[in-house]
Amino acid sequence: MTEMVSEEKRVIGEGKVGSGNIINSLICASEEMLESLVGVEGDSKITKGLTEAEIYGNIFVYNFAGHDTMAITLNSALYLHQTPKSPGLDFGRNQHRHHGRLFATWTYSEIYPQLNRCLSVLLETLRLWDPSIAIAKRTGPTPTRLTINGKEMTISSDTRVISNINAIHSHPRYWGSDSLVWRPSRWILSSPGDGTALWGEQLLTPSKGLYVPWSEGARVCPGKKSGQVEFVASTVTLFRRNRLEVVPEVGESAQAARNRALAAGWDSAIVLLLQMRKPENVGLRWVERG
After folding, report:
1. What is the dihedral of CA 111, 230, 24, 109, to 10 degrees?
2. Cβ-contact 165, 128 below 8 angstroms
3. What is the pLDDT of residues 146-163, one digit of tens each?
4. pLDDT reading at 201 higher than 80
5. Cα separation of 129 and 64, whole Å?
6. How does pLDDT run across 171-187, given as a tens digit for each residue?
7. Beta-carbon neighbour count of residue 70 at 10 Å?
8. For residue 245, which of 90, 37, 129 has the smallest C-alpha distance?
9. 3-class SS letters over the chain
10. Sign of the dihedral through C-alpha 214, 215, 220, 221
11. Per-residue pLDDT for 223 more than 90?
């Protein structure tokens, strides 16, 4: 991280644009850069910028909390793509195949809102395979009173409360009899009068508290939107002109290979986060579409 920050500072110091990434943005908002503007422009009212420690803290959070979680989630989605009778990630391709022009001409405001099916793949994967598993909260200086199933309960002050995210996300009461089935289409709704037209589809909004992979409220994950955009952009790029298939073992049928990949996806354990234990045991390969 130190090398990346130093290099970005050097580029900016030379008057160049820089990489345009999160490190670039943090440095431009730093005390060092803002103080240099004061010297050039004589403006002493510029808002206080980020300290060096705050810059590294933000980079660490995005690298650790954002990179690992989204990488694990994308990996899980690729294996869950092999779910029998599921459209999988090709479900999203039905949308982005319509955009035949070069990626360089795509804009976020125009394209991203049209890719709800790609986003639904992320939402469904996190519903069943949330790398974080649980969210830790703490009560304030006074006891908190809750009403659960008609019964009033009191949680003492300064008490840590950890909710089981995966239990909430897979409960049949909230997600139906197929709550343990990976089915991205459960997130897609059609607007009245639009039938099944892709552009008339809207995303399901679960009731408050039933879907919290990024937490919610005042403490919602600050990287939620960037993670969603990253996943959607990745799936669009990967599946736009390619399909994914399992590499069968000697004498293994295609369906048996898919079942083996799916079993590997379910075989998860907590390392630092919840992730597949042995993804290397099942090979996947990309095949260009004809």
Report:
1. 20
2. no
3. 888 889 999 999 999 888
4. no
5. 18
6. 999 999 999 989 898 99
7. 20
8. 90
9. CHHHHHHHHHHHHCCCCCCCCHHHHHHHCEHHHHHHHHHHHCCCCCCCCECHHHHHHHHHHHHHHHHHHHHHHHHHHHHHCCCCCCCCCHHHHHHHCCCCCCHHHCCHHHHHHHCHHHHHHHHHHHHHCCCCCEEEEECCCCCEEEEECCEEEEECCCCEEEEEHHHHHCCHHHHCCCCCCCCHHHHEEECCCCCCCHHHEEECCCCCCCCCCCCCHHHCCCCHHHHHHHHHHHHHHHHCCEEEEECCCCCCCHHHHHHHHHHHHHCEEECCCEEECCHHHCCEEEEECC
10. negative
11. no
Residue appearing with tokens 């850069």: 33
Q: What is the C-alpha separation between 120 and 158, in angstroms, rounded?
A: 37
Structure token pair of residue 234: 């990745």
Token digits for 37?
């503007």
- Tens of pLDDT, residue by residue over 8-50, are 778 777 777 666 677 777 777 776 666 655 554 445 444 567 7
Separation between Cα atoms, residue 59 and residue 145, nearest integer Å: 38
